[in-house]
């Protein structure tokens, strides 16, 4: 690109943060750039819009070329060259007018152009904030505007900083976490809810405006960067490889909720459309299934009793435990073994749908080398330090796994080695781990970052592959925030709810206890627990104390009633007897419920065992007999076709005999090419049978799922739930 060296004179050499004036200018610039269409715009068009917006911001006063350059630099931190300004002034007809000022030509916008630019700028994101306030009848408009502005300022600056590093490489600048990740700590829970409501507000134009706003950050960084050795967007038809981190897999499978699944799958579809090679490293695959096994072991060790629907999401973000509850609602008789198989099948389906390469193991000569181990261990310690610096109680959004830092270090070092021999291929790790990305950008031993947010790569793909309104909807979901902070980890949430359900299955009591999780008793139990078992015992104790407190209050109420009863003679005695009867009935009811629960549990086990026995013959036929039979049919058909060309003169050639007979029939007489017709008919039948009934009898996961489906269908058909 021309004048790349001159552009490096930009003052954007330090992290952009808290420059509110510039961020407002970015709002207006985005509205102006994309006022007419959402099509990809050229650098020249963006430069022209920057100059137009600069003139509008300065009152459209006459400015010389040097003053134009100076004002653009001041407002947008962008150095536009004199030659580029000349191109704008002389090659753009009907946009500018000139006068002589101090013996030098000065320029401003034609009034009509200025008015059009002013009008376009009015349609910036602020106009949608006002529309949102009016439609939702927000009681405090200023508080609403301020909260959304804080969020958008964070969004624009962090994206500008991130794209700048991706496009131009590291220049030694050290970033803080807040300079790369949206920080909403200054917002109250109420203000976070306002921002969340604005983002999910069903308004297509608003979503486009938000997408264009962040898209403008990318365009701006491309312009600032000029031509770069690692220009992420230059010649994008080149082969690219994107490794997927464990947290991306969790989200893509729906384990972290439907919303996250939808946005991540939208991202994966865009990668597939752009012909990017998606890869899951062997280390990541192992970590994913090790993590799943860890969670399942937690479920086995701390089994949950009956608890009301939605309890998990009340105290923790949607996680694998909530995911399991949803699955269990549809498969009430299925054990955790089947749940593990179900997740494995989801993983295999994901790999197949998006043509993801399940990478082979890192070569032993690399993985076990002293150099690899040394770098990996150094990276691992450094990553852990950064994560702890952000949050001393750091727990990954998606999992808790003791070797996660070692995994991150392994994958990043492996990608670095691949890059050394990759030629024109760009290789990245797509991860939502903000701490890992902060570490990656700030380390000084790599020129270009390895880690990229899926949301930012998604925006890059929109530029190269085209974008639609649905794409912007997905992007807005990417940048959405949680309305309130749920500080309980998935593991602790599971243990807490298991402990509560082990003490009481009364829904109202459970709701009271769950609501108290963020109170002092539960929070102290979480903080002071030395182990999961310790936390479980403390939760049981808290729950028991609550029930005892309830009982004491009930007894006090009964004593108070008894005191009153004495004043009413026989009527009071009758009331007392009634209360006692109700109390006894309540106790009997609790005992009955416990017995019924145990009976239900035993009945479920018997039903499952019965269903497995009843469906076993069908399972054997579908899994083993049918594939064997179909294989025999396929071999027979292949032999039939071969015999049409071989051993024609042999008496035992049944194919020739068959066609000799067929020729004498009505069909053979009136169908000229009857041999091909018969072969085609047989092939169609065999193909249909193969598609309908052929399965792989050696695929254990699929076999287990098939058995599970048969059992579940049997239970459903016979009304045994």
| Overall body shape | globular
| Count of runs of 4 or more consecutive helical residues | 31
What is the overall pLDDT average?
80
Order of strands, widest sheet = 5-4-3-6-7
Overview of this structure, please?
This protein is mostly helical and 721 residues long. Among the domains are: 1-234, no CATH class; 604-717. Helices cover 67% and strands 4% of the residues. The protein has 31 helices and seven strands. The strands form two sheets. Strands 5-4-3-6-7 form a five-stranded parallel beta sheet, sandwiched between helices. Strand 1 and strand 2 (104-109) form a beta hairpin. Helix 12 packs across helix 22 and helix 26 (532-565) runs antiparallel to helix 27 (569-643). It is globular and about 100 Å long. The protein starts with a helix and ends with a helix.
Offer a concise description of the structure:
This protein has helices at 4-7, 20-33, 43-57, 65-76, 82-91, 111-122, 125-136, 141-168, 189-200, 204-225, 246-252, 258-273, 282-301, 311-315, 320-330, 336-353, 364-367, 370-390, 404-420, 434-442, 454-465, 469-478, 490-503, 507-515, 520-528, 532-565, 569-643, 654-664, 666-670, 674-693, 700-717; strands at 96-101, 104-109, 240-244, 277-280, 357-358, 426-430, 451-452. By secondary structure, it is mainly alpha-helical.
Entry keywords:
5-stranded parallel sheet; 31 helices; two-stranded antiparallel sheet; 721 residues; mainly alpha; disordered N terminus
